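Researcher: Re-running this chain for the archive, since the previous output was lost when a drive failed. Same request as before.
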Amino acid sequence: MIPHLVFDLETIPDVEGLRALYEPAESLSDAEFIAQVLAERKEKTGTEFLPHHLQKIAVIGCVFRDDNGFRVKTLGDDEADEAKMIRQFFKTIDVYKPQIISWNGSGFDWPVLHYRSLIHGVSSLAYWDTGEEDRDFKYNNYLSRYHTRHTDLMDVLAGYSGRANAPLDQLAKLCGFPGKLGMDGSQVWTAWQDGRADEVRAYCETDVVNTWLMYCRFRLIKQDLDEQAYQQEIELVRETLTQLDKPHWQEYLSHWK
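Model: Regenerated structure tokens:
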């Protein structure tokens, strides 16, 4: 089978970048400075959500499915070596040229990766190829919104209309999957500051598994998978997670109908 890669980012404010741009008083700690930035952002825009280029990648969650089975992991460590993470992620794309699946990847994850790759000078031949190197990429590449080499499942299901977007958590639960457990994206920065990086990684891993399960269901309704093949994919995920001796997978499985 063609390798499939599901990915999701968890981000935190780019403290170093924001300090360089806004030159705060040296007496402010990172936490105090970011609290000030977020408060000012909310006063101006009504939301604390920072622009894409001012968000630093803390974790990249991945599901990889190929002939060798189903795997889930996160890239990144407590040091949040962003450049190393991004290089590792794009190396996977360059080597395997996988089918990529995301939920709102076009609206959030890819723009963040683009800006952070630019900042760190991280290159990728396959990802940016639109047919110059591989003729097959001319008509199906990662960059075009309407190509399938990257499938933003949220965008496709909404008919490419932002007004119809649905949250992954709710739709996954409506389909009988566990959805998000214990955290959402707005809590990542607080958890990271508190030294709860493992919780952030666990949250990101459950997100990519939810996305993969939703993608399998999507393939069922468009008849890429028949009912038997669909059930086999779902059971493969269950069996794999059962063998992973980590508390968040035990909790995840306990919420699976």
